[in-house]
User: Which sequence fits this backbone?
């Protein structure tokens, strides 16, 4: 074949396509019904029922709306399960708006600090491209959630309710990014003009003051004290007047989030029990984003152990792969694209990650698991944060095969971890990756 596609090539392609009757049937079916509806395997769907041998109590579904705060909502939902159990509450939700305010402020500070650190890098360098592209994106990680909660605490939803800008981040995000990119230009120009670092830091302070003002206008000024008043299931009245967000966290959530660590699988080959650090942007000088790489079977075993103890599991996955939003199904057998297109898809999980075909895009909670006759997991119960209109009243069922292929990270308490994982996390030096690194 020549460099370009010729008319002879097109004629050959067309002839080969029309030779196979299955191609014509597939074309008619897909053009009329869509790819997913045609490729969906009913035999897979009917085995993905929402029944589980082990299931943690459900407390209602939250909705991140049109924002990328899944990691934050999954973290809040993890804390909510403990709070509601400890206080015997019928219902409760944390404020996503409150923590979003500080997440955006901290990300702006992280961005400006990195601009100052890379003042001499060419503007078209890989690092500057990364910084100017990411800026204050919504996404985040477990360790970033831990940093925010430890520094700013948490508040009930009614103390700082959702607003238009928190429910749809695309309203504010482009404006803040435009301002921060302008600030990057100003800092670099001042540096090139010979301004000392002390003067540049003074400029940065004024810049953050502006970002704070913009945040207040869009999200509302963050609550500093609030009244917490609830009535428990057994009719006990709990009242804490004039409490701060940090005091609330410390008083009512007896949990050390820093004792929960991230285990990763499928993002590398032959690198089990190694510690990695990815420099994502969040709280400057906060807890690093660290992972310990383990086999996927280890992740599953430890997730089951934590759930048996009554604790849900924060996890990250590629929710767009082999998923059905309406039915609330995550199943690697859900769509038979190979049969439909008469071609094989042969990449391994680490290869899909390396070539950016599949990677962590969403965080949710594991709330249960169903075991087969051999005692091994068959399907998993997943609590999402897309509201009750998606899935089965907000819940998803995940096949064990899908877990193997598209789940990349689980967060497990140290009290459930074997000593070799704890030792790797606590006592070994992390392999530091570039923020754009394709492998962990």
Assistant:
């Amino acid at each position: 074949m020549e460099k370009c596609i010729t008319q002879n090539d097109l004629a050959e392609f067309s002839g080969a396509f029309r030779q196979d009757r299955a191609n014509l049937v597939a074309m008619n079916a897909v053009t009329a019904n869509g790819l997913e509806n045609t490729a969906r395997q009913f035999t897979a769907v009917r085995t993905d029922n929402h029944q589980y041998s082990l299931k943690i109590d459900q407390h209602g579904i939250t909705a991140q709306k049109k924002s990328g705060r899944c990691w934050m909502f999954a973290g809040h939902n993890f804390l909510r399960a403990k709070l509601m159990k400890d206080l015997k509450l019928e219902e409760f939700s944390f404020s996503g708006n409150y923590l979003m305010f500080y997440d955006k402020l901290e990300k702006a500070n992280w961005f400006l600090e990195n601009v100052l650190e890379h003042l001499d890098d060419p503007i078209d360098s890989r690092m500057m491209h990364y910084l100017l592209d990411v800026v204050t994106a919504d996404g985040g990680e477990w360790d970033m959630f831990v940093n925010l909660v430890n520094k700013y605490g948490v508040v009930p939803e009614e103390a700082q309710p959702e607003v238009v800008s928190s429910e749809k981040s695309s309203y504010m995000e482009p404006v803040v990014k435009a301002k921060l990119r302008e600030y990057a230009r100003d800092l670099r120009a001042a540096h090139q003009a010979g301004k000392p670092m002390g003067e540049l830091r003074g400029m940065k302070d004024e810049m953050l003051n502006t970002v704070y003002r913009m945040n207040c206008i869009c999200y509302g000024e963050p609550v500093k004290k609030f009244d917490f008043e609830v009535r428990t299931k057994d009719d006990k009245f709990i009242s804490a007047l004039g409490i701060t967000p940090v005091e609330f966290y410390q008083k009512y959530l007896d949990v050390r989030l820093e004792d929960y660590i991230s285990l990763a699988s499928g993002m590398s080959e032959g690198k089990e029990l190694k510690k990695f650090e990815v420099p994502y942007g969040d709280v400057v000088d906060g807890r690093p984003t660290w992972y310990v790489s383990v086999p996927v079977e280890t992740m599953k075993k430890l997730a089951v152990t934590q759930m048996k103890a009554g604790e849900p599991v924060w996890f990250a996955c590629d929710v767009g792969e082999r998923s059905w939003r309406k039915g609330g199904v995550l199943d690697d057998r859900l769509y038979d694209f190979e049969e439909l297109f008469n071609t094989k898809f042969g990449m391994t999980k680490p290869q899909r990650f390396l070539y950016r075909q599949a990677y962590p895009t969403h965080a949710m909670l594991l709330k249960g698991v169903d075991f087969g006759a051999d005692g091994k997991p068959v399907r998993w119960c997943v609590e999402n944060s897309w509201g009750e209109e998606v899935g089965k009243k907000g819940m998803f069922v995940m096949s064990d095969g899908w877990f193997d292929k598209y789940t990349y990270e689980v967060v497990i308490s140290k009290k459930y971890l074997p000593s070799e994982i704890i030792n790797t996390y606590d006592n070994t030096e992390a392999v530091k990756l570039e923020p754009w690194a394709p492998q962990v």
